[in-house]
Amino acid sequence: MKLRLATRQSPLALWQAREVARLLGQSHPGIRVDLVPTSTIADERLDLSIAELGGKGAFATQVQAMVAAGDADAAVHSAKDLPSATAPGLVLGAIPERGNPYDVLVGKALDELPTGAMVRTGSARRRVQLQAARPDLRFDELRGNIQTRLGRIPDGGAIVMAAAAFERLNITDPVPHPLPPELMVPQVGQGSLAVECRSDDEKTRSLLSAIDHPPSRVRLEIERAFLVELGGDCELPAGAFAELDRSGRASLVGILADPTGTPLLRLTREGSADRRLGSELASELRAGLSP
């Protein structure tokens, strides 16, 4: 058996693809998994914001195109980088078990940041939540791979990153400072990997199904429904995080703000573990934000 995995060529993306390859090797002894790395426009144009590049799809479109064209059998993504609607002809073949979904500050911890300190982040979601906790902070854009970002920690300030990136690349220096979920609601899909393949490729879908983690898939689908209801790849600061209890019921916390961060609305709801919970919470938040 042989499977070709398309991936971005950043160190984190390659780690993610190798992890999927490892999981496939455990499930299918003897399988040969080849990585097919590529560079995306989001990797190359660090002078532009993600919004200027057309939204989060800038990280995924070129990798998806390789699968659609038959140059790869599947593609590995950070789930948070995927557009909320799956591309035509593709399907989410596997959602492996979710990793750490939370955010961290790198540099100074939140309570160590002096008044007026600089925090760098390319995420409006992160900015508005930090702004709500510390209105005195100043913010600047941050783009690039992990090492590039670590090189841009401002003196006396911090950058914001995903905890999963630190754990997956085994970075211990500098030390990350966790941001509690009570303060920072994660991005939709943060900490999850998503493996896409062609919807008509039954052989690849069968191979990938062995590494699917149903609870992680359910949580991701609820969160993605939240984003769909807000209008697909909503440019407003938004985040959502779903959890399942032992009985299989779900809880979902979501945030939504206008571009200035004021007002910032946060709601938590519980219900059946299906996509309706995500769409209903998004509708409620959007109604609360409307004048």
Describe the fold and architecture.
This protein has nine helices and 13 strands. It has 291 residues and is α/β, with parallel strands linked by helices. The N and C termini lie far apart (57 Å). The radius of gyration is 19 Å and the shape is globular. It has a five-stranded mixed sheet, sandwiched between helices. About 2% of the residues have low confidence. 31% of the residues lie in helices and 25% in strands.
Report a brief summary of the structure:
The protein is built from nine helices and 13 strands. It is of the alpha/beta class and about 290 residues long.
CATH topology of the largest domain: D-Maltodextrin-Binding Protein, domain 2
Strand order in the sheet with the most strands? 2-1-3-10-4
Q: What's the order of the H and E elements?
A: EHEHHEEEEHEHEHEEHHEEEH
Please indicate the count of domains.
Answer: 3
The radius of gyration over CA amounts to 19 Å
* Mean model confidence by pLDDT: 92
Helix content: 25-40%
Which regions contain 5 or more consecutive residues with pLDDT less than 50?
Answer: 44-50
Percent strand equals 15-25%
Largest sheet, described in full?
5 strands, mixed
Euclidean distance between termini CA atoms: 57 Å
- At the first level of CATH, the class of the largest domain is Alpha Beta
CATH superfamily of the largest domain: Periplasmic binding protein-like II
List keywords for this structure.
D-Maltodextrin-Binding Protein, domain 2, alpha/beta, 291 residues, Double Stranded RNA Binding Domain
